Amino acid sequence: MIYLDYQATPPVAPEVTAAMEPWVAAKFANPHSPSRLGREAEAAIEVARGQVERAIDLEGGRVAFTGSATEALNWALKGTVEKAQPGRNRIITLATEHAAVLDTCEWLAGRGIDLTVLPVKRDGILDLESLDRELDERVLLVAVMLVNNEIGVLQPVGKIAQMAHDAGALMLCDAVQGLGRLAIPPGPDLVAVSAHKIHGPKGIGALWMRETAEPDPFIHGGGQESGLRSGTLSPQLCVGFGVAAKLASECREHDHAHVHILWRDAMRALGPDWEINGSTSLRYLGNLNIRRDGVDAARLLADLRDIAFSLGSACASGSGRPSHVLRALGLDDRQSRSSIRLGFGRYTTQDELIDACSRIASAARTQECLLA
Ligand code: PLP
């Protein structure tokens, strides 16, 4: 199997598996209990917290662990609304955000929040003037992701945070696909990340919160995570997240250079008949979302079962929903159905990527011949 679905989840790093192993069974103590074993687990969690904070690398805040980035985003949005000053009840977000943001915002809109979902330009990037026109003293929060999970484009998060602050609003950044791949620009007040997108374990995420912007608690109970997020922490998941974050920081330059080479190889092997969905310059190169007119992408997937790639968003796949991101770029349903996403990175070899892309190109040509 050639694995090209890194945006859904990349392989778990062997260093992560090894670091987690002792905490799975042997070191089973509750990290919130005062016994020596409990304190040892707590100490391991604090090391992991520091590693995640260093990977996020923003000043003036701290990280709380959550069960996923979806939870972190729900918490950031709902907990910020909960403590909003009277009169600040608007949220602005983008049409291309992840469902964890869009669906939560819609839920809040059903409870009285005034929601603005801004369109993006054809290249998938926000037009800052359209944001400027919307910002006023009623805006509570602007939520924009750093790297898009479906098409890989980068939003100008630093500038957006600055504009939000000038209007007295906060900025939430979904950095799930950006962490470890590029620096998170200074500015956001709340940042959501996920371990399994950086070669860590599934089932753990985190919310980085500026000291002045901590949302109200969303999950109530035992008062863990300084009373902000209740629930017994999992030492194995925290340790795995910490090691993945440390590796992400250490390997960033190497991973970046590797992905650059892979992108070039993929483009060459695919040939000239494919269009890139989204900006070709403002993007993370480990995400290649492409379309070829007339191709039935679902059939490509069925014909090439030993290559793992995606038709659109992994989170929405299987739901039968057409990609809201491709639609936001102005693509019609036919173009969306001709689009595939190839995701590669640290453990992808040049040979396997070239092999997979050549076979994808050849299968697409065969489809064309059959239709002709
Ligand atoms: N945000 C983005 C951009 C994502 O790609 C994903 C997962 O695909 C999420 C949020 C949700 O992350 P998690 O799987 O940790 O809930």
What does this structure look like?
This protein has eleven helices and twelve strands. With 372 residues, the protein is of the alpha/beta class. Helix 2 packs parallel to helix 7 (235-270). The radius of gyration is 21 Å and the shape is globular. The mean pLDDT is 95. Bound molecules: pyridoxal-5'-phosphate. Pyridoxal-5'-phosphate is lined by residues 68-70, 98, 100, 145, 149, 174, 176-177, 194, 205, 314-315. Pyridoxal-5'-phosphate (PLP) binds at residues 68-70, 98, 100, 145, 149, 174, 176-177, 194, 205, 314-315.
The overall strand count is 12
Walk across the major sheet and give the strand order. Answer: 2-8-7-6-5-3-4
Largest sheet entry: 7 strands, mixed
Distance between the termini: 31 Å
- Beta content comes to 5-15%
The proportion of residues forming helix, as a percent range, comes to 40-55%
Order of helix and strand elements from N to C terminus: EHHEHEHEHEHEEEHEEHEHHEH
Q: Which assembly state applies to the chains in this document?
A: single chain
What ligand molecules are bound, each kind once? pyridoxal-5'-phosphate
Nearest-integer average pLDDT:
95
Structural class: alpha/beta
Q: Provide the gyration radius in Å.
A: 21 Å
Shape: globular
Detail the poorly predicted runs: none
